[in-house]
Write a structure and sequence with these properties.
Layout (H helix, E strand, L loop, with lengths): L1 H29 L1 H5 L2 H13 L2 H24 L7 H39 L2 H7 L4 H40 L3 H11 L2 H28 L5 H31 L2
Length: about 260
C-alpha cells in the first residue's frame, strides 16, 4: 500500500511539474516580441552565457579532436583508408559530438549558473519585489536569458566542431603524418553542407531550447532556501543531460535515417 501511495505521489508531482513547465514555456514564447524590443538585455545574456563558456568549449573541442584523430587513424589504417581521416573527424563532430558535447558542457557551466542565479533571486525575494513593483519577472529576467541561451549554444557548438577539426588535423597530419591534401579533400568531398552541417546546427538549436528552459524552470520553481537552490542546480544538470541524450537519439533517427 505504501508503495502505491508513493507511486501516486510521484506521478502527481511529475504531472504538476509538466503542467507548470508547459505554462512557463508558452509564456516565454508569447513574450518573444517584447523581449526583442529590448535587445540590450538579450545581448548581455549572450555575452554572459556564451563568452564565459568559450574557454571550456575550446579546450574540450581541441582534446576531442586529438582523440578522434588518434582513434580514427588507428581504425582506418586497418582497412587502408587512413586518407579518409579528415572525413571521419568532420562527420563525427558536425553530426554528433559537436552539438551533443557542447550542450552537455553548456548545461554544466551555463545551465547551473542560470538555475543558481534565478533560485537565489527567488530566495532573496527579488522576484517577489519585482511583482510588487508591477514588473513581470518572467519578461524582465527569464525571457532574455532564454533567448540568450538559444543564440549562444549553436555558436558554441560551431566553434567546438571547428576547433575539433583543427585538433584532428594537428594529430593526423602533424603527429602521425597523414597527407594534408588528402585530409582536407576527403572532408570537402564527403561533408554535405545541408545534410550534415545543417542538421548538426538544427540539433544544437533544439538542445539550446531544452537546456536553457530546463535551467530557468528549475531555478524559477526552486524552493526559496539554500537547500532548495542546491537541489534545483543538481536537477538541472541531471535533467538537461538526460534530455540532450534522449533528444539526440530521436533527432538522429529522424534526420539521418531518411
Amino acid at each position: 500500500m505504501n508503495a502505491i501511495i508513493r507511486l501516486g505521489a510521484w506521478v502527481r508531482h511529475l504531472l504538476l511539474g509538466l503542467g507548470l513547465g508547459a505554462r512557463l514555456f508558452v509564456r516565454l514564447l508569447r513574450l518573444t516580441p517584447a523581449t526583442f524590443r529590448r535587445m540590450g538585455l538579450v545581448r548581455d545574456q549572450i555575452h554572459f552565457l556564451g563568452n564565459h563558456s568559450l574557454a571550456i568549449i575550446v579546450v574540450s573541442g581541441l582534446f576531442v579532436g586529438f582523440v578522434l584523430g588518434l582513434q580514427g587513424y588507428y581504425t582506418l589504417q586497418r582497412y587502408g583508408s587512413a586518407e579518409a581521416l579528415g572525413l571521419l573527424v568532420a562527420l563525427s563532430l558536425v553530426r554528433e559530438l559537436g552539438p551533443v558535447v557542447s550542450a552537455l558542457l553548456f548545461a554544466g557551466r551555463a545551465g547551473t549558473s542560470l538555475t543558481a542565479e534565478i533560485g537565489l533571486m527567488k530566495a532573496g525575494e527579488q522576484l517577489s519585489a519585482m511583482d510588487m513593483m508591477a514588473v513581470d519577472p518572467v519578461q524582465r529576467i527569464l525571457a532574455p536569458r532564454f533567448w540568450g541561451g538559444i543564440v549562444a549554444l549553436p555558436i558554441l557548438a560551431a566553434i567546438f566542431s571547428a576547433v575539433g577539426i583543427l585538433g584532428g588535423w594537428l594529430v593526423g597530419v602533424g603527429l602521425i603524418g597523414v597527407d594534408s591534401g588528402a585530409f582536407w579533400s576527403q572532408m570537402q568531398g564527403g561533408v554535405d553542407v545541408w545534410r550534415d552541417v545543417g542538421n548538426g546546427m538544427l540539433k544544437s538549436v533544439v538542445f539550446a531550447v531544452a537546456v536553457t528552459f530546463i535551467a530557468l524552470f528549475q531555478g524559477y520553481e526552486a524552493l526559496a532556501t539554500p537547500e532548495g537552490v542546491s537541489r534545483a542546480t543538481t536537477r538541472t544538470v541531471v535533467t538537461a543531460s538526460l534530455t540532450v541524450l534522449g533528444l539526440d537519439f530521436v533527432l538522429t533517427a529522424l534526420m539521418f535515417s531518411i
